[in-house]
């Protein structure tokens, strides 16, 4: 046996092992990329969920922006109302402090019997 024959046998064995490795790898890749059962299906489902979540997030952002604008408007109205109430209370307070004090008189009603007796 010569050295070249031994090298040829090792090269043949390496080629057979490489082809077997490629065959096993191709089968694994086929299972990996199957859309129904493998990782490809999981990736497709996750991609669809990401799209759904993105659209839901955009809708939530629009709703939140609208609610924020509405809240700002309501807050402004409440502040204006509070200022008006403060002015009204201050003017009412001023009116009660500056008004002249009159003694309170009790008003008596005459009964009908006393009116008839007077006539």
TrEMBL record:
Alphabetical UniProt keywords: Membrane, Transmembrane, Transmembrane helix
Keyword Membrane attached: yes
The name this protein goes by in its record: Uncharacterized protein
Region of interest: Disordered: 93-119
Stretches that traverse the bilayer: 6-25
Biased composition annotated in UniProt, kind: Basic residues: 102-112
């Amino acid at each position: 046996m010569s050295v070249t024959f031994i090298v040829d046998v090792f090269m043949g064995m390496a080629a057979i092992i490489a082809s077997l490795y490629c065959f096993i790898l191709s089968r694994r890749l086929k299972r990996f990329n199957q859309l129904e059962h493998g990782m490809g299906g999981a990736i497709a489902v996750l991609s669809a969920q990401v799209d759904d979540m993105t659209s839901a997030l955009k809708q939530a952002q629009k709703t939140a922006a609208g609610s924020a604008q509405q809240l700002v408007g309501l807050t402004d109205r409440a502040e204006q109302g509070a200022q008006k109430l403060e002015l009204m209370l201050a003017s009412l307070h001023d009116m009660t402090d500056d008004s002249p004090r009159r003694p309170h008189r009790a008003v008596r009603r005459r009964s009908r019997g006393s009116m008839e007796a007077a006539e």
